[in-house]
Amino acid sequence: MEFVIIAIVFIFVGIIAGVIGFLVMRKNQVNQKNSPIEQTAVVVIGNYTESRIVGENFQQTVDTVRGFTDKSYYVRFRTKTRKVLSFKVKPKAWYKYHEGDQGILTYQGYKILSFEPKQLGIKDIHYFDCVKKEGITGWIYGEAQGLDLSISSSDAKLFDMRDLELFIKDIKNDESDWFFTIKNNKGDERQYEKEGKTKIRETKLINNEIIIYPMTELLKNIKTWIEVA
Fold this sequence. Notes:
The protein is of the alpha+beta class. The chain is built from four helices and twelve strands; from the N terminus they run αβββαβββββαββββα. The strands form two sheets. Strands 6, 7, 8, 9, 10, 11 and 12 form a seven-stranded antiparallel beta sheet that branches. The N and C termini lie far apart (70 Å).
C-alpha cells in the first residue's frame, strides 16, 4: 500500500511539472510572437557554446551514466550604441558567424530572422569613446575579450557615469575571464575581476586588500566609491 501511495505521489508530481513546463513554454511562445521585429547595424563579437547533461526528458541531470550531453550554440553581436545582443542558433548557422563580421541584423525577441553582411564602419566603435563627458569622471583600463575591449594601463580611458553604466551592464554577461582597473580623481586604483560566475573580486591596489561580493552590486559599489572620493 505504501508503495502505491509513493507511486501516485511521483505520478502527480510529474503531471504538475509537465503542466508547469507547458505553461512556461506557451508563455515564451506568446511573448516571442508579440515581440516587435527590430533591425540594427551590428558587429559579431564572438560565438560560444554551452553544454549540460540531460536525461530522456531533456531535463538537466547529474547522472552522467544514463544522461547525455546537450550542446547549445550562441552568437553575440554589438550594436552602434554598444548594446550586446546574444542569440541561440542552430549548429549549422553557428559556423556562419565570425568575429569581426559586420552587417544588418534583423531579429524578433530571442530569434534571429536574418543577418546581411555589410561593411558598416562600426567595428572600431568601443566603450568610453564619447568625447563629451558629464559630471563625475574616472579612468579605466583592462581587458574583456567578449566585448572586444583591450585598454593598456598607459592609455587609460576617461569615462563618466553614463559610460560606466553601459560598460558594467554588458561586462556582467561577458563569458571571458575579464578584468578592469578604475582610478578615481584622487589617484586611488581598484581592480575588478570575476570570481566564479556570480561574484566579483575587488582589490584595493593601495594596500592589496581584497573583498568579494555579488556581481549585482558591482555598479553600485563603484559609483559609491567614485562619488565619495
